[in-house]
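can u do me a favor
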């Protein structure tokens, strides 16, 4: 199972309101992986999500990838860099699938 190399370093510096858990499930196919990302609060911005998962190394690279049309949300190309994503949505980028879930601890 492949975990993005920058992931541990990124999680260490994330504000506590951005993410509580991030887990990686076994590959769906040989070239893709499903990442489960728990959202704390109502939403996370698309550029922040790409950075938080380690799929993009910086906000600038996330913006460039979104602008180039390489990122899909729920199967459609998303061009808004700061699109607000909510639990239940799925993001596809570079052969990876990110599924947004509710942070269960926020609801207790």
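np, heres the sequence
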């Amino acid at each position: 199972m492949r975990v993005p190399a920058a992931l541990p370093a990124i999680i260490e510096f994330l504000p506590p309101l951005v993410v509580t858990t991030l887990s990686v499930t076994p590959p769906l196919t040989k070239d893709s992986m499903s990442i489960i990302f728990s959202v704390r609060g109502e939403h996370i911005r698309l550029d922040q999500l790409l950075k938080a998962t380690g799929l993009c190394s910086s906000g600038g690279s996330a913006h460039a990838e979104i602008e180039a049309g390489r990122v899909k949300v729920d199967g459609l190309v998303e061009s808004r860099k700061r699109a607000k994503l909510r639990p239940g949505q799925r993001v596809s980028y570079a052969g990876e699938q990110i599924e947004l879930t509710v942070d269960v601890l926020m609801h207790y």
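Residues 14-20, 25-31 have pLDDT under 50 and may be disordered. hope that helps!!
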